[in-house]
Design brief:
Chain lengths: 361, 361, 361
């Protein structure tokens, strides 16, 4: 519908040009000048993918499967890891670093800073008189802020977010559109993407004589500093203790976190994964997409749970598991290979059994 | 709670009667008169399932597992494939076609057309003065339309939908309740079901010295004409390129689409499936429920990904894969059979060992 | 961020003290006095986990893996099953019962009753003049109630919920924030958690000459009494019949229910599970997390579907199945063991074969 593919100025304000030296400085990369040509005198004007970036734009190579794009790119400045430094086209400058993706991230952010809170409260918002909303916060249209809630400095409450009674939200947070947040204490620099549901009752019931009886859910949700929660993700509050998401941890869209669950610091939980109640994750655990963890188990720090993995028991620190039920990566792929081999052989034997010749063996 | 099971008039306005000839015409089916009886003189008055439809109602048979219902139905007109034409009860007319489900769809739509946009803007909606809203559009209660957004002819923005700054929405779209839509260009006749989250940041971060650093997400979401997105589905915007959903493609509820992903035309993605970032699907790809695709792979046109499949590498055009990791359908079910056989044999051997002891009794 | 871990008084109003006798009465448990010490004269003041509860608080042991906590707890009153009655510390009283979790549930509820409806309609709500809202109902900020809708006694419609035209909701229901509810008849004491999407079009389309054509979805959603639906769960309305959720059935967060599906009474569907269209579940069926059921099958009453199970065909009453494709629990775990054994043996053989060759070097 349009030829602009990165940073459409309708959505991302056009930045002022930035010099290569400045980009090298903020990214911590080494600037390598073009072998044939010069830096654009006015600086760089934006970013783009290798296929599309022009002589005043910055691009990057992070995934080696796209390395052949280096041969054709017209990008004026390319961020690359050291392994690709000798493949930069003659006319392009390079920012060479051992952390290309991190450097790219910082360069892109330098061009396109996050929008800041626009101080003020939309007149349509319903804010309880007992709520304490910092004067620098931004409260969007139709937001609802409950009794006794606290909203910190420069925090953005987007349109249609509902903040329950007594919820505490720190500074520099971004609470997305249509978020429901209750029974929660939220740190600083926390981002909740649209439609996240945080603090509702956990899934707890007892079997009574006439059917299920709801077990009161009397804990909270604690979100540490720098936590991010994806769109339409769900985090239930605890029943007798808190549900805790450690500082720096990031959850992707549509992730489910059951009640009383504890995640450590700097964990990653990818889209559509689910962690059942009372399970505990150490720091730096990675849970890949669509994995599921049963309740009441412990995952050691730094463990990696593969995509679609079904984890039914504790996982050691640093372990890599995959499969349903979960097993070490190596064992899983050995199993896959074994079954394929046996299955092919069986299929061959079945065919052979029909042969008269095989009877003679 | 009531005996009406199809088209409760409280929810679907009662239609005027329609003649069998008209229904044959709009469905492209052949009208076969009752062998014993006559068409209802006043035309047909509605639709219903075979078990419940009466002499002035239309029903259909699409799934052969329900064929025995033909023996008992009282439906006055039955839409069937050619294979079932000889099983129509003597008192019923039939619409015989090679596309029974399509014919049914058109007949049902003829009775119950989609509600049209009720031109106008609810006084509670917050519409930025710079937004361009076509005068024929319907804007529901508490909708929010951002600065510079464009809303096309006869498009419905339902209650509580939030349309971000500069978003472009074409004609005849239906944006459901509580939808969040930002950083997006939307074609014509697009339907977004309630709670869909479109255009939020992709899940992108780099590992920095003090924890994760967010990578700016500077692409958009492009939804082609006739796209449908299910309830509570999530589509992240691109990071350096766009996330693109091709014309005619339909996503079911709770589907996740990662950043930079491209889906071709007329693809189907069933509920709770997830497609990771930068993966590319050709045209007419089907992804069944709860399947997961890793990032940076290509799925050829017309490929079919089975339910709960875990796709870790490219899939050829026209291929059928299932399993986790994905493999051809045939291989998957052969593996299942092989493992069952080996497992029973192993179990039998164990039992046989026990039999030695019992032989002594 | 605070040391209170259960029932933070900011979120849960501090209860009046309750006597041990009263707690025994409402829980149906046997009160056992402390062997060494006395009951707190003023009664019990609240609840807490074993690690944290003090001498005037009630705690419980439900999961035997935490039994060692009994040795250290300071809780004044402990609810336990009979098997643990002899492990109660000398200073603590006990409530001994054969249903510890149920007793706990009732005790906790006695301390912390559910908030009741605060009769009245927030002035920001948009309520169609033809809607019938009981005077005892609570209608929150920005709620939208459609034409002809009915809201029963003491029902709470939370902030931002949207109730479609003609929807009927019974008494004592709790409709959460940001819920979308249309084309539905809802019984009494039904709870819908935030962001649930109920009554939107099912995923139905026919293949026409120019692409997919939407099949009209002309059924409803029927929710029986005491149903609970989790946050961001989705239930599509039927196409030719109704989608029905039987009385007492509970769905967890992010569950998907396709059109025309029928769930019996007192079923449990755990988070992220999905049930495809036209499938029928009997009473008391349990579907564990992330399981998926294809359409048009029947699950007998009392069947249990394991986590991540992929169910492709009917399941007998009372059966336990797991795996993808689904199989009996016993067979699944036998298969896992068989494959592990064969795989290790193959790996051993390969290693041995390689060793022979390398010995020759």
């Amino acid at each position: 519908m349009t030829t602009v593919s990165t940073a459409d100025p309708r959505f991302f304000p056009k930045p002022d040009p930035i010099s290569a030296e400045e980009l090298a400085r903020i990214s911590g990369a080494e600037l390598v000048l073009p072998r044939d040509g010069e830096l654009p005198p006015g600086g760089f004007t934006g970013i783009g993918p290798l296929q599309e970036a022009g002589p005043t734009e910055v691009s990057f190579l992070d995934n080696r499967r796209y390395a052949s794009l280096l041969d054709e790119t017209r990008a004026g400045l390319i961020i690359v890891g050291k392994a690709f430094a000798n493949r930069i086209p003659a006319g392009s400058a390079a920012l060479v670093t051992s952390s290309a993706y991190l450097a790219w991230s910082r360069v892109a952010r330098r061009f396109y800073p996050r929008p800041e809170a626009r101080q003020g409260q939309h007149p349509s918002a319903v804010i309880d008189p007992s709520a304490i909303v910092h004067e620098t916060a931004e409260i969007g249209p139709f937001a609802v802020i409950g009794a006794g809630a606290t909203i910190g400095e420069r925090t953005i409450i987007a349109a249609h977010a509902v903040i329950g009674d007594s919820v505490v939200i720190g500074a520099d947070c971004r609470i997305g559109t249509h978020v429901s947040l209750s029974h929660a204490l939220v740190g600083d620099r926390v981002t909740l993407f649209p439609g996240a549901r945080i603090g509702q009752d956990g899934f707890g019931f007892a079997v009574g004589p006439a059917g299920f009886e709801t077990v009161p859910q009397l804990g909270r949700v604690i979100l540490g500093n720098d936590v991010e929660i994806g769109a339409n993700a769900t985090i239930d509050r605890g029943s007798v203790r808190d549900t805790v998401i450690g500082a720096g941890t990031r959850l992707d869209n549509l992730v489910q976190i059951g009640h009383n669950t504890t995640l450590g610091r700097n964990c990653i939980v990818v889209s559509q994964a689910g962690i059942s109640g009372s399970t505990e994750l150490g720091d730096r655990v990675t849970v890949a997409a669509q994995a599921g963890l049963i309740g009441h188990i412990k995952i050691g720090e730094g463990a990696r749970i593969g995509a679609q993995c079904g984890v039914m028991s504790d996982v050691d620190s640093g372990a890599d598991v995959i499969g349903s039920p979960a097993m070490p990566f190596r064992e899983f792929f050995r199993n896959v290979a074994t079954l394929r081999r046996l299955s092919r052989r069986a299929s061959g034997n079945t065919a052979a059994a029909g042969d008269v010749a095989s009877d003679k063996d």
